[in-house]
Amino acid sequence: MADFRRESGPDELLTQYSYLFSDDLKDYPVLDLACGDGHNGIFLASKGFSVVLADRSEEALSQARLNARAAGVTVQFRQVDLEQEGVNPLEDLSFSAVLVFRYLHRPLIP
């Protein structure tokens, strides 16, 4: 298993602009898309936000589960693949905000 742990916490850009996440955004969860180890979503969950951590990698989500447990926060997890044509695995959900820091789109090469 790859080591997804980060010692540095949330991305600097998120902490710099975290004031934009007001109580008005607490009606629906925040989606951390391509969450990896979950460090950004876990940061927002520690601030009282409902968070959905989504990634296509079960390995990444396993580490995110460990990190959330270690941080003492409750978050939802979704294993999703957004690159399947004609499929929206998140269409049943609504979000107040979406975080996307490291989404790596890999186009299919014929």
One letter per element, helices H and strands E, the order comes to HEHEHEE
Structural class: alpha/beta
Low-confidence stretches: 1-7
Mean pLDDT: 88
Number of strands: 4
Shape descriptor: globular
Contiguous helical run count? 3
Largest sheet: 4 strands, parallel
Helix content: 10-25%
N→C terminal distance: 29 Å
Strand order of the largest sheet: 3-2-1-4
Report the portion of residues in β strands: 15-25%
Query: Which value, in Å, is the CA radius of gyration?
Result: 14 Å
Give the topology, please:
Blueprint: H1 12-16, E1 30-33, H2 39-46, E2 51-55, H3 58-71, E3 76-79, E4 97-100
Parallel strand pairs: 1-2, 1-4, 2-3
Task: Describe the structure in brief.
With 110 residues, the protein is of the alpha/beta class.
Description:
By secondary structure, the protein is an alpha/beta fold. Helices cover 25% and strands 15% of the residues. The chain is built from three helices and four strands. The protein has a four-stranded parallel sheet, with helices on one face. Helix 3 links the parallel strand 2 and strand 3. It is globular, with a radius of gyration of 14 Å.
Quickly list its features.
alpha/beta; 110 residues; 4 strands; 4-stranded parallel sheet; single chain; globular; disordered N terminus
